[in-house]
Design goal:
194 residues; single chain; two-stranded antiparallel ribbon; 4 strands; two-stranded antiparallel sheet; 10% strand; mainly alpha
Length: 194
């Protein structure tokens, strides 16, 4: 035990005031036995570095998404509070909230009996805005006939409705031909009600 070389120092430990190695795993992987092992070790270290970079990128992207959502919420809040008329507020909500989230969507208001009294459809495709306005002016019975829309209206706030594929054949049976043509022009792909 007394044979310890006084000039040989142990590597510094975290917390003892010394700076840790820039990448501890790379430092541990730098031990080499043969050229083949060295190439393998470098590849593993590079993979770890790539994974670390990917994790950092994912974290940055998550922060960006959060910032975008907060900015959207602020824009929606500002737009809705600018209107005393609740229908105009619903229109503003649709026009601001839907384009960042979907190709098209709608905000529907219910009356005290649970009937649909107002509908605003927003689309990201400028050429389809006239289709949205036409569908808004038609009767809203297609909303009432939709089992999934009724399900969403009666869902608890904590319920999460996942995206689902549109059943175009079932929709065609539930709505008039005019409604179906307009909905198909807007696009029938996947849907989600929130």
């Amino acid at each position: 035990m007394g044979d310890r070389d006084p000039d040989r120092r142990s590597p510094p430990l975290l917390g003892d005031g010394a700076e840790p190695a820039a990448h501890p795993v790379t430092s541990r992987l730098s031990l080499v036995v043969t050229d083949d092992d060295q190439m393998s070790i470098r590849r593993e270290a590079q993979t770890f570095d790539e994974m670390l970079a990917a994790d950092m990128q994912a974290e940055l992207e998550a922060e960006q998404v959060t910032a975008e959502r907060l900015a959207l919420l602020a824009r929606v809040s500002d737009a809705v509070t600018e209107h005393l008329d609740y229908r105009r507020a619903a229109d503003a909500l649709a026009d601001i909230a839907i384009p960042p989230l979907a190709e098209w969507g709608f905000v529907a208001l219910l009356d005290e009996r649970g009937g649909f009294e107002h509908l605003r459809i927003a689309t990201t495709h400028p050429g389809r805005a006239h289709v949205a306005r036409t569908l808004e002016k038609l009767d809203h019975t297609w909303l009432a006939r939709s089992e999934t829309i009724r399900e969403a209206v009666h869902a608890a706030p904590e319920d999460v409705l996942m995206p689902r594929a549109m059943d175009a054949a079932r929709l065609a049976q539930a709505v008039s031909a005019e409604h179906y043509d307009l909905l198909a022009t807007l696009g029938l792909g996947t849907w989600m009600i929130v």
